[in-house]
Amino acid sequence: MPDGDAAPRRATISDIAQRAGVSTSAVSYALNDKPGVSASTREHILAIASEMDFAPAAAARMLSQGRTDTVGLVLRRDPRFLANESFFMELIAGLEIGLAEQHRGLLLQLAVDREAEMAMYRQWKAAQRVDAVLLVDFERDDPRVGLVGGIGLPAVAIGDPSLTGGLTTAWTDDATGIREAVRHLHGLGHRSIARVAGASTLAHVHIRDEAFAAECAALGVRHRILHGDFGVELAERHTNDVLDDADDPCTAIVYDSGLTAVTGLKTARARGVSVPDQLSIIGWDDSLLTTVTDPPISVMSYDVVSYGTAAAGLLGALLAGREPAAHLAGTPTLHERGTTARAEAR
Amino acid sequence: MPDGDAAPRRATISDIAQRAGVSTSAVSYALNDKPGVSASTREHILAIASEMDFAPAAAARMLSQGRTDTVGLVLRRDPRFLANESFFMELIAGLEIGLAEQHRGLLLQLAVDREAEMAMYRQWKAAQRVDAVLLVDFERDDPRVGLVGGIGLPAVAIGDPSLTGGLTTAWTDDATGIREAVRHLHGLGHRSIARVAGASTLAHVHIRDEAFAAECAALGVRHRILHGDFGVELAERHTNDVLDDADDPCTAIVYDSGLTAVTGLKTARARGVSVPDQLSIIGWDDSLLTTVTDPPISVMSYDVVSYGTAAAGLLGALLAGREPAAHLAGTPTLHERGTTARAEAR
């Protein structure tokens, strides 16, 4: 044999047709999942192709055309935490709606840290596992922008366009959203507001920080920001820290997620602080979770599922050869429920 | 050119090494994501390989070895509903934990119906998109068992082994679980119990139905079962139907999910029916959702994340050439919270 480690001669479509007792067209229909053969014939043909270790046309086409019809998404999250954070679940649901229309699948992988995430993109590119990737959780000077550019991996960013280095981007206007939250609380008479925020390294947290501080300053509202990790433990501790501060009693807290807002409500109640009579609470990202508490939680809300679908649409356009500009997928607006009321002195 | 539609001669590793000014070993390390080159050299090499349209070794290896390191999961669910159903989100999280250890990715795709789901498996097999699939939502005489066997697609079933046709199976003992729920309610004096269930075509719903009816009969408890679709609208209607029945007032309802139990609690409260004083409620599958209501909901609970991880483990064993038997990943047990109490006449 000319090639030392080559397998025996590869089966051809004719070999399969002969063995299955059908035409080569029928084999081709079956292998490419096209109409023209019955379901039972199709399965018979696929079974024989499999027995003969046939390297199917689609795999060969993938090599020559470099197409996988698969889009990759790496999440750098604790998986136990993931299931409780409705944002990612709704985003994935929205992506699936958009990708299903394009007949593309979503390859989902968790990574423990940034290095593992970067290695995944290199590996996916090297092995032609995906046609493109979706990038989430942007940080300032995010190294992924340079990486995907350097290795020629098409990417759509989900994040603020000021931080996605010119990548095609779907974003929501968080700055406008948090300004609305502050203005609403100010209108209710709140003059000292805390923000229990996510990790300060995350770009959208930083954007909310700046807009929150600026709006509070403009309205003469005292403010403080406590950075956490979107987890329950830190949200509880930070809520207690805010409520322990006797020198400057905050009358309202704005949380960066639904889960942390629910935690804040529970923490306040456990201390005997009445919500909303003594403390107003606003969460972020609407979900079932914030509607089933008593009282249900006022949130800055936008349609995360549609956000995901919009991102998938941008990705389809990108792969079709267009380079769409940044797409504003939504501006969070206040859904007032039961946790916001006029400020009372605590 | 001998081949009519062939591209120009494919670039080799030597071509890339020459252009990048590095050794062929360095190119090989970079393309296979192995240590031995710096991150910047790796990116330089990958960029050049990409420019030269290099068909990487990994893709060629996939063709010859038929390995993708990818596992497929098709969900036949409304995506807008998916984000609210914590079971699938936790299952996916658990799968990701197990698959990450195996360096495998999860290809996730939604399908509108059973036909679309079946077509997806054929297509994945024909195009060698996945090494194996995970099957969920088993029905009686499920046609997927025959399909994956027929086309030679390795599969791990997540469902009761009585219905998965001899496939390697991860399961939870739902029959034992629901019997415990009935016994507990009987012990609290409940003598008429309703079950607001999922779709009757689903195997695990049927298994719970039979065990529920048998246990009620054994204890002399009157019972009724109302089948729905795990959605909010039907859960509300069925709860109202149960509460409207003046001839045989139920004092307890067992729901098939967390979302439907939360809906039941809201529906009862909207009618002025006090939970748990006038009506006891038990949900299924623990999640944050059932803990943040007031009162928090008593549930039949097991660790869904671990269930997913166990299924991923079985899949790894299957792909390593073993054929693991059915694996009992958990038996739901009652987590009593605030929605169960002694029966009072309504």
UniProtKB/TrEMBL annotation, chains A, B:
Superkingdom per UniProt: Bacteria
Every HTH lacI-type domain range: 11-65
GO MF terms held by the record: DNA-binding transcription factor activity; transcription cis-regulatory region binding
Keyword Metal-binding: no
UniProt KW keywords: DNA-binding, Transcription, Transcription regulation
InterPro entries: HTH_LacI, LacI/GalR-like_sensor, Lambda_DNA-bd_dom_sf, Peripla_BP_I
Identification of the protein by name: LacI family transcriptional regulator
Natural source organism: Microbacterium paludicola
